[in-house]
Task: inverse folding
């Protein structure tokens, strides 16, 4: 999903230039700036979300790399938050702090939506090393094996090959520029109800085993069971099959919200108090869907409308800020925590 701060910068400051800001805004300077912002803006919470992460050496070669956070950048961000006195919390703790109304802290939550194998292999171990919590919003069709993970399979195939076949036509993918362009074009072309059909045809034409590819990227119930026992890991739900809830009938929406919650409780034996809407903007979920979430037992729901959590009464549907992997600089999350992304979203009419 689009990062609105990134939108503001992309016309005049490409990501390579923004990366350079960390050379200037480093160490004591960026920490001092963060503390000044906290003193000026007061107590608040910022809930970040992302989907995948990859090592810095791998990140540049990924055809859908903006979907991934650079693990070195994420490590630096966690260090920066600790140094600047920010408190990293679960969603449950963050909402409790906000509702209490007396906190003087700036608190931050990180959540991962979907949950792939790299959640288990890369991301949770990084948060463990820092001793801070992480929220996992799990799409249960991934460990259940009912989702094809076509986008992961498409990306993996493009990344590993110098050419691919699409509808019998050879497309060169021998440079990173061609890989990026090909992935973006096919993602746009396939997006919709027939995406799994497109992917099945693509796999057949390119000699790709879709089951093997899915297993390569999917998190398993065994992995999730291990993670669920970690006191630093909070488990939430992200539907059964990752649809846009606003486009479903009431019965379909209730199945996606309630079925995923019950499946997680059955398999992991943990309370599942929170739900994150796929896509999560105003056009993707609304009052009907929030009411369904309450009916099936959720205590709160996460969107991706940009905003901060302020001390006082907490809305049932609360905001989160999506971290775009293209901008590997501490400047961008600092702007998010200052509320700039929410202001930009409102100004651009993208909420």
Result:
């Amino acid at each position: 999903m689009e990062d609105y701060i990134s939108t503001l910068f992309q016309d005049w400051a490409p990501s390579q230039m923004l990366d350079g800001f960390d050379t200037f805004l480093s160490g004591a300077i960026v920490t001092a700036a963060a503390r000044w912002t906290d003193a000026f803006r007061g107590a608040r919470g910022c809930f970040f979300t992302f989907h995948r992460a990859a090592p810095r050496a791998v990140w540049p070669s990924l055809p859908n790399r903006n979907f991934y956070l650079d693990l070195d950048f994420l490590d630096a961000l966690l260090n920066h938050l600790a140094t600047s006195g920010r408190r990293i919390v679960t969603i449950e703790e963050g909402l409790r702090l906000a509702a209490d109304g007396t906190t003087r802290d700036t608190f931050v939550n990180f959540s991962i939506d979907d949950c792939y194998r790299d959640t288990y292999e890369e991301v949770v171990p990084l948060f463990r090393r820092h001793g801070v919590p992480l929220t996992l919003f799990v799409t249960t069709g991934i460990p259940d094996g009912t989702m094809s993970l076509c986008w992961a399979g498409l990306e993996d195939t493009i990344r590993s090959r110098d050419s691919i076949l699409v509808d019998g036509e050879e497309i060169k993918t021998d440079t990173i520029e061609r890989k990026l362009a090909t992935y973006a074009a096919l993602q746009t072309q396939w997006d919709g109800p027939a995406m799994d059909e497109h992917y099945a045809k693509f796999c057949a034409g390119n000699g790709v085993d879709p089951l093997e590819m899915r297993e390569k990227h999917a998190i398993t119930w065994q992995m999730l069971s291990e993670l669920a026992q970690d006191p630093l890991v909070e488990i939430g739900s992200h539907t059964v099959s990752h649809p846009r809830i606003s486009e479903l009938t009431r019965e379909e929406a209730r199945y996606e919200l309630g079925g995923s919650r019950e499946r997680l409780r059955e398999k992991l034996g943990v309370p599942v108090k929170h739900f994150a809407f796929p896509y999560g903007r105003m056009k993707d979920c609304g009052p009907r869907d929030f009411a369904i979430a309450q009916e099936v037992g959720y205590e709160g729901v996460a969107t991706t409308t940009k905003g901060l959590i302020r001390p006082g009464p907490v809305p049932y549907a609360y905001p989160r800020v999506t971290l775009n992997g293209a901008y590997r600089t501490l400047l961008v999350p600092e702007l998010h925590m200052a509320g700039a992304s929410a202001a930009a979203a409102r100004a651009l009419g993208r909420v």
Remarks:
- The chain has 16 helices and 13 strands.
- The two ends are 11 Å apart (CA to CA).
- Residues 188 and 195 are 10 Å apart (CA to CA).
